[in-house]
## 1
Amino acid sequence: MKNILPKFLLIVLFIFLPIKIYSQTFVEITQSAGINFQHAQGGFPYLGGIACADFNNDNFTDIYIVNAAGSPNQLYMNNGDLTFTEKGQFADVNDNNNSWGTVAGDIDNDGDIDIYLTNYKAPNRLYINDGTGKFTDNATLAGVTGSDSGYSSSATMADFDNDGYLDIYVLNRAQANDDYANNLYHNNGDGTFTDMTLWANPSELQTALAVGTCDYDNDGYMDIYVANEFELDGFLHNNKNNSFSDLGPALNIPQTAGMGVDYTDFDHDGDFEIYITNLGNDIFLVNNGDGTVTNKNSVVGITNGSMTWGVNIADYNNDGYDDIYSVNGGMMWPQTYSQKNVYYKNLGNGTFVEKADLVGLGSNLGDSRASSYLDINNDGFMDIIFLNILRDTDNPSDTVRGKAHLYLNQGTNNNWISLKLIGVQSNKSAVGSRVKLEAGNLTQLKEVHSGSSFGSMHCLELGFGLKDNTIIDKLTITWPSGNVQELTNVNVNQILTITENNTVTGIDEILSSPPEEFKLSQNYPNPFNPSTQIQFSIKENSFVSLKIFDILGKEIKTLVNEELDAGNYKYKFNTSNSIEVLPSGIYFYRLVADSFTDTKKMILLK
């Protein structure tokens, strides 16, 4: 009997552990997080965008959500504990017009994120961040209020001429009897912009709904893709002189009713594919690497045939391959439609499979529009926020329709790294910077964007999934300025800030000098689920003990119990690896090194 029990336990662990490691779920935390956004009932049914960025430089991503006329736009500031506080009025960004979309970036390169707001039948806004949580609308002074008609829909920011300042490209949606050109505003670097629309020749007089940028041909300049509702989409190639050529007809891209757009190098071949949501089957333009693209939606398993709007492409389970989340919402009056959003998991073999119900994203049946991804708790796993509109015929007390919905990614055991890039010669937000990551047999390419999905933008940080790789062999950052930086042998499971000109923070190995004191840091992220990092410093060779306890003082786990040299250390506490299932609650970790002792509290929140 002595040998049977251990073997039995090993068999049980062998059977169940893989399911624990590789399963992934999302859980809605909208109410507990304090997101109380109510879409204005009866407003124009296209309206509502989301911008995700760190507006107060506290290293937590905040959320700006725009609304229809009569209901103010709202700014939700991240408190760092899975809750948010609404600060729209305090920050002076609570516009009351028919707001369609929004993007964000550091327009004036002063170190904080500014906001551009597109309004429908009203002037657009350029909210300049003063660094104290307050914004000032400088759109008129800057010359970026939009077309004379005021029919702006979405926008994107990028440095189209690589001069170190973010420019703004604004969509103006054509009406029944009038066409309005999209606007290209060139940033002069002095707080003003020059309207380059006529010179740029964007050739866009269409029912433009969504826009995004990426360097699709790898020539170092950001190109533009415009999703048009009733005409051929605009595929605008950057001519490197502040002008663009529309390659859509020559590339034979399919004519659809485009609603949203996003980008991914889903097959790891070193160039970006383009995903366009649609009224009908979504389009997946695979980059052939020779300047041409091919729609391979059905080939790769994209079968979504609903009326689709926002789209978020990210590696949600951190297995090294980007997945796709897109939101649906029918729009045929007077009926009210409730369509399930879809989640396509990348199988890593050039195909996707739909898994919304399996991961917990299939139950919210609403009328969705905008959507974005962000990492609200800095755990390395991208979370999702999307907006449902409210029609005249809807019940205002409906808890699904007319609300913003925030879903927390509960993560997997896969490793990851998150990169925050700061430009110096390049624009401060590093938009257009691309990162090539090499880890084991994984080679990935990502690029910093501001503006995609439907009237929205994802967070500016780049998240890479690493699966079971425990070290990153090489990171290669190519900045818009042309500067190239390389980092080698980079640790995983950390948020790394990289500043152009070789300043890096967040890598333990960069700290060449030994610590001057014993120190135990607060775990990160906190609250956490299922894992968190605990970092400490040892100023001299010591016997070190690091243990985890529950609230009653019961020892849960020993992470360290050995002699260590002076240095900085980081250990991962993963509750998924515990034989005993740990419930949500308060836990403590204690560091003992020679005569030094310190204890800190952490929260497991499932």
Note: Residues 1-22, 507-513 have pLDDT under 50 and may be disordered.
## 2
Amino acid sequence: MTLWWSGVGEPSFVFDVGPFPPGNILTTPVQTGGPAGCALAYGLVHSPKKPKVLLLEAGGKNADPNFRVDGQRWLTFTNPDLNWGYKTTPQARCGDRVLDYSRGIGLGGSSAINFGVFTVGARDDYEEWARIVGDDAFRWESVQARLKRLENFHSTPPAGVSSKYVAPKASDHGSSGPLHVGFPAECETDLVPLLDAFEQAGYPLNPDHNSGNPIGMSLLISSSHKGQRSTAQDLLVPCPENLTILTESPVQRVLLQGEKAVGVEANGKRYFASKEVILSAGALDTPRILMHSGIGPKEQLEQHGIPVVRDVPAIGRGLRDHAFCPLVHTRTENSTGRAGFYGEQAVMDAALEEWKKHGTGPWAKFATMMGIGFFKLDGLASSAEFKSLPADEQRYLNSETVPHFEIASHFPIHWFLPGFRNEDLNYSCLLVFLYNSQGRGTVTLQSSDPNVPLLFDPKFLEHPFDRRSAIESLREALRFTRTASYAKDTVSTLAAPKSDSDEDLLEYWAQTIGSSWHMTGTVKMGKPGDVDCAVDNHFRVMGIEGLRVADMSVVPVLPSCHVQAVACKLPSLSKACWPGGQKLTCTLLGGQISPAPYVLKSWCRNMVLRSRAPSCRNGISGFYGRNNLRDRRRLIKRCLPSHSQHTAPRPC
């Protein structure tokens, strides 16, 4: 019996109660939105032996179709039924602000609440990853081949958009995978003129940011299709006969015999595995599970009375993330169409009815397409902060395809700025993203209760290079807004720094910075003996037998993209072999994962589990709403037989 724990977005377990064929390859077709668990379940239930699979999910079914409105994808994270509600600790360099650190809950996980940006990163990201871990399986050529197998790219550009702006090569994309990505049928009227403005200001256009070289300004490829956002649970619709899905259930720790993983504990029940346990709970929660299992920094475990099985100081360190800040300007009356749509509630209501009937109309147009640009900073390499970096890091940052910052347009910021006036709805919003963070944050224990989330401290702007990069990125974005090609339509400034001095730029970052939810690196992959690493290139936790990690926590670089595509590819990169010659390939979506596939019972062959801590909204150990511990235990008791019984789980 193999135990697999998976899930970045929400707690879920999966029990395979049927035979698993020896030598069979576990393939993970990634679905739109990325969560590994659903992708794994999809692969299992469609494998030749058709094993019976029970999937347990900590959250709900997320079945409301209104969660899928493409133009409203920016708002789903505000729904407390879909979001664990995580926050950072106060950020010292950001005015002690506590920042949103959202993670999704329910079927689909964080793929149900992200912003649908589907970018694969830079070719040189993967070359660096391969160098760090000493394994060519992580090089771009190998990674791209795997991505193409899971992608179903719809290359038709929006109406009226020429090949000057969108010209992807078929050789760079897949067309038959389960993950639907592409462009909306229509885009907002000022989007192409904005790309022209960038070109006129001297920035290159890029007809395909997912070719392996993202440098330049592009039209965004999104994880949506025909007016509807996709999430991980799409892989499981219609639900196969050999799959049982049980929602609303969590897990606390890995069970160990000495330094060997033998199972997991979930709400008082113990489930045992005869082969391996694989954690895929993401960069914020995989460390929590490991620590409460006695695997982690010795001083933290002892402080909270957790028996130490193995002292692994690297676990919980190395947190990296992208951050952003906005630039907002009102524009001339006829340069955008936003005021006529967002300014009239009756128009939006009628558009929603059209979307419900046909999946078309303004909600399949407005806020469904962005301009996205990845750029180099000419003077960054000559700065003292850059020159103080290690030689390998300097070489990587100077690589041809690695951008120094990102600009994304058409973010619907009127939903997020308090008191935004209807008369300002003809606006332009550019988000400036800080890349290549050199700071290393932490996720640390705050309680001996395994249901309590860790403390999340990304340490934004604490590293000197990060401050220099933030200053120069924002300065360059400001330079663009002052060019004639952009400024000709600007009426007033709603959000921007006071000036382009270093002090004012850095202060503006501190006042407006937000996390991109691209958390990475807290159970870092590396070579045996690397003091800052916890897993090897086969995803095995060093020093613990039968335990692997496959999620964004292991990624040793901060990819130059919005990371859901990276997470989707993760499991398929593993070359590790199961006993009997089975090859492990698993896929995960780093900031956004969903229910996983596989396994349980004393006579089962394979088990997969995912877990996530409950939100702490009312005190350090408080659960809320439908996710309280009593309800979860009742649900598990109702739907699962005792682990000593030789009966299949009952559908709920």
Note: DSSP finds 15 helices and 26 strands in the chain.
